[in-house]
Amino acid sequence: MTNLQRKRVVITGLGAITPIGNTLSQYWEGLLSGRNGIAPITFFNAEKHDCRFAGEVKGFDPHEYLDRKEAKRMDRFSQFGVCASLQAIADSKLIIDDLNAEQVGVMIGTGIGGLKVLEDQQTIYLDRGPSRCSPFMIPMMIGNMAAGLTAIQTGAKGPNSCTVTACAAGSNAVGEAFRLIQMGYAQAMICGGTEAAITPLGLAGFAAARALSTRNEDPERACRPFDRDRDGFVMGEGAGILILEELQYALSRGARIYAEIVGYAMTCDAYHMTSPVPGGAGAARAIQLALKDANITPDQVSYINAHGTSTKANDSTETTAIKTALGESAYQVAISSTKSMTGHLLGGSGGIEAVATALAVANDQIPPTINLENPDEDCDLDYVPNQSRAQKVDVALSNSFGFGGHNVTLVFKKYQ
Questions:
Q1: Positive or negative CA dihedral for 185, 186, 190, 191?
Q2: Is 223 noted as a catalytic residue in this protein?
Q3: Which among 51, 162, 191, 344 is annotated as catalytic?
Q4: Which CATH entry fits the domain spanning 263-413: 3.40.47.10, 3.20.20.70, 3.30.70.60, 3.40.50.620?
Q5: pLDDT tens digits for 178-202?
Q6: N or C: the chain end with fewer CB closer than 10 Å?
Q7: In 46-143, alpha helices (H)
Q8: pLDDT tens across 23-40, in order?
């Protein structure tokens, strides 16, 4: 299909449940003000863990959106995904009914899925025997259920799937939803990412891989992307959801448009289970291919929402990848890592970061990278340190990279 035949895709609704706010307005206000959502863990006793803090979602009540019976049969990651989807649909004012249900789809990614349910049921199995395990264990645990339950709640009968590409899952979900509309397979898509893996086992696993910060004495300053004193990422949880629509369909119903999605690309390092390839060749190629897909030149890029995990390997590698992909224009682009405030939502990160990128384009406001006090000498670009910035944002990128060597870049553009 040629570019002339491809349909234009716009963003008409946004939803967010995050460590810095459980509504879209709270999330955006939190980003611009540099609010920190990272604190000591309250969900369980983390005293024996090397890392004892995370970006927990606070004050979340699924019963604001779901009845008690429905909520009880969902793992927390599904609750986040469904509730953020309902937020986004309300924001878009999209009505799903018999006339359009088969043309509205769902694509929600997750990296891990229902880890809490799995842990709880394993305890029941060991303590009380196999006959006492819940019949809902499997449907609550499996990763596709956020997408499936969102369809059940909304009546969306179009394309439905779940991307499971580790920390790139949310961005892959947005990109694949974009492609489905672009190619004419759907008129609208509910898409993004969700995760709820702050559990004893989840925390222990990432700590054992030496991926987490251990700044237990100062958790609010632990997530410090691009800073020379960074010592690992901080786990977060939540969901970010976007409503994508084919342009003419959105215009026909008078929808408000935040931004247009114009490019998407994914590559693989084919190098290592957890480490990016030195030099970031795979990430650079994803950025280059996404720009080519969007027909955008490097000098047109205003802002990049970086993957920016606050790990030694990612931040310098991503910086090199941006330089490779954009050339001299890399030094003119504003870059920030919103993970500095939310922590790393794993499969949910691409969702909330796509939401943030769309809002940056819509509002000409760039969120900061907080805790950036002593820049790493290998990280020498403009990372918008500590204070948000009012700046024209015509074109923005969102990068996500995942274990297994997955690299994803999305391209957003001001609608006109």
A1: positive
A2: no
A3: 344
A4: 3.40.47.10
A5: 999 999 999 999 999 999 999 999 9
A6: C
A7: 68-72, 76-92, 115-128, 137-141
A8: 999 999 999 999 999 999
